[in-house]
Design goal:
The protein has 400 residues and is α/β, with parallel strands linked by helices. 46% of the residues lie in helices and 17% in strands. It is built from 17 helices and 17 strands. Helix 1 crosses helix 3 and helix 2 runs parallel beside helix 16. Bound molecules: nicotinamide-adenine-dinucleotide (NAD).
Length: 400
């Protein structure tokens, strides 16, 4: 369903989307309190915020908060993670410019990201660095890039890209992921729970006794490994940093090289934030019937495109379970086409976790709207007062 102001699956799904967002709203007290203040102070008046973040219910509550503060919004999500009913509700009832649908390809996702920038935002909230990439690589966005007041970047992969591969910018970018609040509360606890939930909902299999290989033992990987162990899985951790691997060993996980561990796994989860961690040769070493999924930002982490190229046959067995038959008859079960399993297979991180994370986003955007001239034009950490205020608000809401 398309108009100049939106491109979504089906506006008729709005009522279901409203129910979803209302449930999330009932469990987001931090954003509720922020909304009340922002509605009075109107810090975003005159601003349009261009957003790339999963189009799902918690994001809907966040957009409502920003709009109460005077913002207009254009948004896209990520491949495989859009809730089509939430997208419809955002368009019909909130007047958000939404460019996203669940089964969009990566190429369509990048076109949607362009549409967000075509909407001429004055502030950006990015996730994975795709908006920043377009701003730096496309001539047609050069002027927009110069006029932007500032940006945020949500996640580890985007932070890595901004710091390692993208050129410097003409505006400040606040990296939400740099906070301990985000890394610990969301990446470790939130992702840990939701990835396990996503695998279980998608497959309906028991995890107890299964040999699970977790590749990447950063903040997210630690949470995933711990929760899997808690459910009785026999967890092996592979991380290419020796110190991190040692930490996993001291925590009691089996560890080893990828080559040594890959053949023994019943389930493999990638969560590194880096491309090509699993290569075509690795699939040849896996056991027949292995389940493979990804919790990192992009399906390129497990080389999804290359895996499909290797497959002689692809059969959809359940929503988000594909059976790929390789040369010689070996079967690989790929979940959610390699997209983020917790969002594609479940509802993403728990609502409370995103209440905190999206409060960090809100206050960082408010800082950019009101005092961007005090910040340097480069990627930088969230101002300390914002992280403390958010953490205090979470303590009040959760502990009392
Ligand atoms: N699913 C979600 O909801 C969600 C939420 C937050 C972050 N993420 C994403 O999860 C990914 C991981 O984030 P993080 O915060 O844990 O990152 P991190 O930087 O804390 O940890 C990544 C770990 O992977 C290891 N690693 C990197 N390349 C490797 C390789 N080739 N082989 C083995 N180990 C390797 C690193 O040494 C590091 O220990 C990122 O893509 C991030 O954007 C997903």
């Amino acid at each position: 369903m398309t108009s100049g102001k939106h491109k979504i699956k089906d506006i008729g799904l709005s009522d279901a989307g409203k129910d979803r967002v209302d449930w999330a709203r009932a469990n987001m007290p931090i954003l509720r309190a922020l909304k009340e203040r922002l509605a009075k102070e109107q810090p975003f008046k005159g601003h349009k915020i261009g957003i790339c973040l999963h189009v799902e219910a918690k994001t809907g509550v966040w957009l409502d908060t920003l709009m109460a503060g005077g913002a207009r919004i254009a948004i896209t999500g990520s491949p495989g993670t859009t809730q089509d009913d939430t997208a419809a509700y955002l368009v019909r009832d909130m007047g958000v410019e939404v460019f996203a649908w669940r089964d969009e390809t990566f190429a369509e996702h990048m076109e949607n990201a362009e549409r967000v920038l075509d909407a001429r935002p004055s502030l950006i909230a990015d996730n994975g660095g795709d908006l920043h990439y377009l701003l730096s690589s496309q001539d047609k966005f050069r002027e927009l890039s110069r006029s932007l007041q500032g940006a945020t970047e949500e996640t580890t992969t985007g932070a890595n890209r901004l710091r390692e591969t993208l050129p410097s910018f003409t505006f400040p970018t606040i990296i939400i992921n740099d906070t301990m609040a985000k890394r610990i509360v969301e990446n470790r606890y939130g992702v840990g729970i939701s990835v396990v939930d996503g695998i279980m909902r998608t497959t309906n299999i028991m995890l107890g006794g299964k040999a699970v290989l977790v590749i990447g033992y950063g903040y997210c990987g630690q949470g995933v490994a711990q929760r899997l162990r808690g459910l009785g899985a026999r967890v092996t951790v592979v991380d290419h940093e020796p110190m991190v691997q040692l930490e996993a060993h001291l925590e009691g996980f089996n560890t080893g090289t990828l080559e040594a561990c890959i053949g023994g796994a019943d389930i493999i989860v990638t969560v590194t934030g880096r491309d090509g961690v699993l290569q075509p040769d690795h699939y040849k070493q896996m056991r027949d019937g292995v389940i493979v999924c990804n919790a990192g930002q992009n399906a390129s982490e497990l080389s999804a495109i290359e895996l499909y190229d290797m497959a002689q046959d692809v059969r959809i067995l359940r929503p988000d379970i594909e059976q790929l038959t390789l040369d010689g008859g070996k079967k690989i079960f790929l979940l959610a086409r390699g997209n983020l399993i917790n969002l594609a297979g479940g509802d993403g991180n728990p609502i409370e976790v995103m209440d905190l994370g999206l409060a960090l986003q809100t206050l960082s955007l408010e800082c950019l709207a009101l005092r961007s001239e005090t910040l340097e034009c480069k990627p930088q950490t969230v101002p300390q007062d914002i992280e403390r205020a958010t953490t205090r608000a979470a303590l009040e809401a959760w502990v009392g």
